């Protein structure tokens, strides 16, 4: 199972999801081909009711702690309740281009 599939499985098994998108954006960065290091998530879950944005993101970070401490370098996420999602499904799935930079830049 690749990292993208692992993320989907872990979130699906841990949250009461009504919608999920896991987008591998690694190709937009200075990484080897077929990398799985940069992801964007759109996660819609009943579990987010009565939680603010920080609490929602902390919950996702907890669920994906193994991936975030290893192969995943960057994670962008939109965490919404089903009500928020129904009200506005226009979450942008387009990310800005990478501006470059690497660990060797000073």
Description:
With 106 residues, the protein is of the alpha+beta class. It contains four helices and three strands, in the order αββααβα. The chain has one domain (3-81): GMP Synthetase, Chain A, domain 3 (2-Layer Sandwich), CATH 3.30.300.90. A three-stranded mixed sheet has the order 1-2-3.
Q: Which second-level CATH architecture applies?
A: 2-Layer Sandwich
Major beta-sheet overview: 3 strands, mixed
What do the pLDDT scores average to?
83
In CATH terms, the superfamily is BolA-like
* CATH domain topology: GMP Synthetase, Chain A, domain 3
Question: What is the rounded Rg?
Answer: 14 Å
Low-confidence stretches: none
Briefly, what CATH class?
Answer: Alpha Beta
Helix content: 25-40%
Beta-strand residue percentage: 15-25%
Distance between the termini: 36 Å
Task: Tell me, briefly, the overall form.
Answer: globular
Oligomer: single chain
Q: Can you list the strand order of the major beta sheet?
A: 1-2-3
Total count of strands: 3
How many helical stretches? Answer: 4
What number of domains? Answer: 1
Return the string of H and E elements: HEEHHEH
């Amino acid at each position: 199972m690749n990292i993208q599939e692992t993320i989907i499985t872990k979130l699906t098994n841990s949250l009461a999801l009504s919608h999920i998108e896991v987008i591998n954006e690694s190709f937009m960065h200075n990484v080897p081909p077929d990398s799985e290091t940069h992801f964007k998530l759109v996660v819609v879950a009943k579990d987010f009711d009565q939680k603010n944005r920080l609490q929602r993101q902390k919950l996702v970070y907890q669920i994906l702690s193994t991936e975030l401490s290893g192969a995943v370098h960057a994670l962008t996420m939109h965490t919404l309740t089903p009500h928020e999602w129904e009200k506005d499904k226009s979450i942008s799935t387009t990310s800005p281009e990478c501006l470059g930079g690497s660990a060797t830049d000073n």
